[in-house]
Amino acid sequence: MYDINIENLSVYYGPVCALQNINLKVKSNEILGIMGPNGGGKTTLLKTILKIIKPTEGKVSIKGDSSIGYVPQFTVFNRSFPINVLDVVLMGKLSRKIKWFQKYSFKDKKDAEELINKLGLLELKNRQIGQLSGGQLQKVLIARALITDPKILILDEPTANLDTKAKKEIHEMLKKLSENKTILIVTHEMKDIFPYIDTAAYVNKTLHYYENPQKLKSEIFEKTYGYSIGTINKEKVIDKKITGHKEDEDDQRII
Ligand SMILES: Nc1ncnc2c1ncn2[C@@H]1O[C@H](COP(=O)(O)OP(=O)(O)O)[C@@H](O)[C@H]1O
Ligand SMILES: [Mg+2]
């Protein structure tokens, strides 16, 4: 039932504690929105799930060792490098193959074209990456992460610096993909993301999980504006005061 199960996870960088005693279960085909201040440990959490970082304590289990696609937070790309969209998507196959000199097979190319088509990017297929808008490039990087057809897709701030239209397109794309994929998305797009996510997590060294993301939305609203959204009832506000976590001024600005 759970694609990802994290138990009592702590991660330290030397003496710096990035994550402290985290528990998290992610259901199959769920979209989990991960939020929290800069430096809160969101990227560390994703990298631990990806096994790029080793837990200091605790463990991360992935169901049946499902494959994971990853769209990193900052993709270092020389935009003037002469490479087109199809080539970038095909690069997603390379990491699996290790044999860097190996040419792509006919099937690889066919898979890439099919995926590009499915994601509505066919007209960009032969476009040089330097000629893409930020939103288009991000979609191509998502396609690159999807080329091996992973069960789990992990995206680290994929819509940062994009305009509202591009954000919406990417969110719609993820919603469609979640029909048969489990998706974890780190985002600062508080306003835009809520209609698209099933559950939410707030990460600031510790992790608060929200079965109902609207509760997190209300808490953030209240923390930012000092009063609750009309629909939130008194009980919830009281509950928040008891169990809620106070962040410092800095965090409020980031949110
Ligand atoms: N490679 C690293 N070495 C040392 N400290 C790191 C490293 N990566 C991240 N950190 C620290 O761990 C904390 C969490 O960082 P990060 O996971 O990148 O947070 P976020 O993605 O939420 O902004 C921060 O205090 C950051 O400075
Ligand atoms: Mg990060």
UniProtKB/TrEMBL annotation:
Residues 4-230 form the ABC transporter domain. GO terms for molecular function: ATP binding; ATP hydrolysis activity. PROSITE patterns: ABC_TRANSPORTER_1 (PS00211), ABC_TRANSPORTER_2 (PS50893). It comes from the Bacteria. Gene3D superfamilies: P-loop containing nucleotide triphosphate hydrolases. InterPro entries: AAA+_ATPase (IPR003593), ABC_transporter-like_ATP-bd (IPR003439), ABC_transporter-like_CS (IPR017871), Metal_Ion_Import_ABC (IPR050153), P-loop_NTPase (IPR027417). This is Zinc transport system ATP-binding protein. Keywords: ATP-binding, Nucleotide-binding, Transport. The keyword ATP-binding applies. SUPFAM superfamilies: P-loop containing nucleoside triphosphate hydrolases. Belongs to the ABC transporter superfamily.
